[in-house]
């Protein structure tokens, strides 16, 4: 990995991409394919496709604790252990809390991957387009700033990435949820088919569809060409897929980038700063800390793509200070680190379905159902802004049921070896508004072991989100009861920012450099050769899972950047 | 064990074929270093007997044949605080002592009906012990090779999905 070469020439590339996750992978693929020599820097360790997916093919009896965390893991990961993504099988995929130090003025759950591929390995793969209802929302509501783009600007780029990624789903022609370029939709369980009919009959304007997911229900030429196979319905995606059946950097964007011969991937590289030339008024490269040797090193390039996750990228930008940018790179507006958003969730309802006991299923579908947003659309008007969608699904209970019952013995065992009743649940994913005061900033004194100042979070859900949550819980119960489910129970388990791992908005785009960090092409205002294309650019959150939009915007920005280079504007 | 020795040992165990990152990952995994109580062979044997009452051998092997007690010992040792471990093993000791009081024999020496009666009595005598024992036995059993492949139907790579098909007569629950 060029570790022994010190001359500036050999530390110089056409482009540097910070991060190897969903957007870093796309940036590297697009830029290398357009002829640029790219250095991709990843703070985490190497994770080779297939070979390093240690638990992917293991049987349950080959784990020690069936996924449970040990006391030692809970003690060494007090923050990560708060929720499910960190477990026995994914231990090495996430950063240790002892390395990933951060502070909380208010609670924030920060999930930081520690691998090549970033969160593209563990992501939920739900993939939805934003609509013009989303892009026009801030303008309509008169809050924050207007998006500098509209749906028509992104639509061709959605199509472009979808054809390569492979998104399974069903066409609906809904204004609030534009269709993607779909692979065949996955099937529904019997209970889901019936609930869908009843929701659509009892609640005009509401729709239920199968989840739109970046798993290959069928592998086309584009996917087979990079060595991907169709989904095997094992539902072990987050461990890494040996079949390459869902989108990850390793399965999808790294192979074509590597094939060009123009990609250098350097893991264990913590980018601490973007270097700025005061005379040329442009970035010259980046400074990294080698995570293993703890030696700093510099790399140089004509353009820099910042794709280190919304919060990781923002930390690097805030830490990149110069005479020109004393408050952080490109931070003339003072908005860098502000407008921190995530989705709020963990509220909904579930119930028992008494029918279809003579029906069963085969395969483990790594996907659920989706109820697109219906609140505050058309004539619907609530006492809060924006809306939410539901994710959820049906299932037939298995051996885990009745663990809490007072029973044991041959009858208990016999009962569990037969399928139990069907259940169905709906969980809301709500939009969070962009509040200027919801922010992250860098601690003035404390640094982590790589010399990066610690990130401090000062952000919370507010009244609009709290009002929305009431609907998210009650609507779920109402729809399930109206669909004939029994013993329907609603819940609100509380949601903190960060938990949905859809963090975004901390370097938003906009038309005016006085109120935004990036322009409509993800280009830093005032520094033409730096682009930020991860979730940091988001101006409002929508309520749909955001990764597909990041992919489309990254491909769009890469196209713009290379055209500008050819025009000698960069 | 020093980290270097541990790495060497792991490399030997794995035949030295793993890549460095995988090896580092494997060694980065934390094993329990916290306080834990020592479990004797007798306690483990007793756990196996109790587990076998909760999930007995029927037309398929039971919890003891599946080695569920190994899972129980491991999870209690590594995943619970010491106070919970002490409470759990006190519950186990109490079950054994109650067997002696009631039937004049250790739990292991009881016949099947007597064992069932004692476990039933534990449901009211020490409900927390019963619930934890039941939960760990059930999980240990159905995630064991015997439990998953013999008592349930195990299909690691389905290769297809059909969400609504007729239930076959005698269809067992999917293990996964």
From TrEMBL, chain A:
Start and end residues of each Glucose-methanol-choline oxidoreductase C-terminal domain: 434-553
GO MF annotation: an example: oxidoreductase activity, acting on CH-OH group of donors
Glucose-methanol-choline oxidoreductase N-terminal domain boundaries: 112-343
One Pfam entry name: GMC_oxred_C
UniProt keyword terms in alphabetical order: FAD, Flavoprotein, Oxidoreductase
Cofactor(s) for this UniProt protein: FAD
Family: Belongs to the GMC oxidoreductase family.
Protein name (record): GMC family oxidoreductase
Classification lineage: Bacteria, Pseudomonadati, Bacteroidota, Cytophagia, Cytophagales
TrEMBL record, chain B:
Keyword field contains Signal: yes
Top-level taxon of the source organism: Bacteria
Pfam families found in the cross-reference section: Gluconate_2-dh3 (PF13618)
Keywords from the UniProt entry: Signal
First and last residue of the signal peptide: 1-24
Name of the protein in its database record: Gluconate 2-dehydrogenase subunit 3 family protein
Organism annotation: Spirosoma arboris
């Amino acid at each position: 990995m060029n570790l022994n070469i010190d001359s500036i020439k050999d530390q110089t590339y056409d482009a540097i991409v910070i991060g190897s996750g969903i957007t870093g992978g796309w940036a590297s693929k697009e830029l290398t394919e357009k002829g640029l020599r790219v250095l991709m820097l990843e703070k985490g360790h190497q994770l080779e496709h297939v070979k390093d997916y240690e638990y992917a093919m293991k049987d349950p009896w080959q784990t020690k604790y069936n996924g449970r965390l040990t006391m030692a893991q809970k003690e060494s990961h007090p923050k990560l252990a708060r929720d499910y993504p960190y477990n026995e099988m994914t231990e090495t995929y996430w950063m240790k809390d002892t390395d990933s130090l951060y502070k909380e003025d208010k609670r924030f759950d920060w999930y930081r991957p520690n691998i090549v591929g970033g969160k593209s390995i563990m992501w939920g793969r739900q993939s939805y387009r934003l609509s013009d209802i989303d892009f026009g929302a801030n303008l309509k509501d008169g809050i924050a700033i207007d998006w500098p783009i509209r749906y028509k600007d992104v639509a061709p780029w959605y199509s472009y990435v979808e054809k390569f990624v492979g998104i399974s789903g069903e066409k609906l022609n809904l204004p609030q949820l534009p269709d993607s370029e779909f692979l065949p939709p996955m099937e529904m369980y019997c209970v889901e088919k019936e609930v869908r009919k009843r929701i659509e009959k009892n609640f005009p304007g509401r729709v239920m569809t199968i989840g739109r997911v970046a798993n290959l229900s069928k592998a086309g030429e584009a996917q087979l060409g990079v060595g991907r196979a169709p989904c095997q319905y094992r539902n072990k995606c987050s461990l890494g897929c040996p079949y390459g059946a869902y989108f990850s950097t390793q399965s999808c964007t790294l192979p074509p980038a590597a094939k060009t011969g123009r990609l250098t991937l350097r893991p264990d590289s913590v980018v601490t700063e973007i270097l700025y030339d005061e005379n040329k008024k442009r970035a010259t490269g980046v400074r990294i800390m080698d995570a293993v040797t703890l030696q700093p090193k510099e790399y140089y390039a004509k353009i820099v793509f910042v794709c280190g996750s919304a919060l990781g990228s923002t930390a690097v930008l805030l830490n990149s200070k110069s005479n020109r940018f004393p408050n952080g790179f490109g931070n003339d507006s003072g908005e860098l680190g502000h407008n921190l958003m995530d989705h709020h969730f963990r509220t909904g309802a579930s119930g028992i379905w008494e029918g279809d006991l003579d029906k069963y299923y085969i395969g483990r579908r790594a996907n659920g159902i989706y109820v697109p947003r219906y609140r505050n659309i058309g004539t619907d008007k609530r006492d809060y802004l924006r809306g939410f969608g539901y994710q959820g699904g049906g299932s037939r209970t298995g051996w885990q049921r009745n663990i809490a019952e007072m029973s044991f013995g041959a009858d208990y065992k016999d009962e569990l070896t037969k399928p139990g009743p069907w259940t169905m649940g709906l969980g809301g994913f709500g939009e969070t508004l962009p509040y200027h005061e919801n922010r992250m900033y860098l601690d003035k004194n404390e640094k982590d072991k790589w010399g990066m100042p610690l990130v401090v979070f000062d952000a919370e859900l507010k009244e609009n989100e709290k009002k929305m949550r009431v609907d998210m819980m009650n609507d779920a119960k109402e729809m399930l009861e109206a669909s004939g489910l029994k013993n329907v129970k609603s819940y609100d388990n509380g949601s903190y920012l960060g938990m949905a791992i859809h963090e975004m908005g901390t370097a938003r785009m906009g038309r005016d450099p006085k109120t935004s960090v990036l322009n409509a092409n993800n280009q830093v205002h005032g520094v033409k050769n730096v682009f930020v294309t991860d979730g940091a650019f988001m101006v409002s959150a929508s309520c749909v899972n955001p990764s597909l939009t990041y992919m489309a915007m990254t491909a769009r920005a890469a196209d713009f950047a290379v055209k500008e280079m050819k025009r000698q504007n960069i | 064990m020093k980290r270097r020795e541990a790495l060497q040992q792991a490399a030997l165990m794995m035949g030295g074929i793993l890549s460095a990152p995988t090896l580092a990952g494997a060694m980065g995994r934390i094993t329990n270093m916290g306080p834990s109580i020592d479990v004797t062979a007798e306690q483990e044997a007793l756990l196996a007997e109790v587990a076998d009452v909760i999930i007995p051998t029927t037309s398929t092997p039971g919890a003891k044949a599946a080695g569920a007690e190994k899972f129980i010992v491991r999870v209690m040792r590594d995943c619970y605080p010491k106070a919970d471990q002490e409470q759990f093993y006190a519950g186990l000791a109490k079950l054994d002592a109650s067997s002696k009081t009631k039937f004049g024999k250790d739990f292991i020496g009881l016949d099947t009906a007597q064992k069932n009666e004692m476990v039933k009595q534990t449901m009211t005598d020490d409900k927390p012990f019963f619930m934890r024992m039941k939960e760990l036995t059930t999980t240990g059993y159905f995630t064991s090779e015997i439990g998953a492949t013999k008592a349930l139907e195990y299909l690691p790579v389905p290769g297809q999905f059909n969400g609504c098909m007729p239930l076959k007569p005698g269809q067992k629950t999917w293990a996964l």
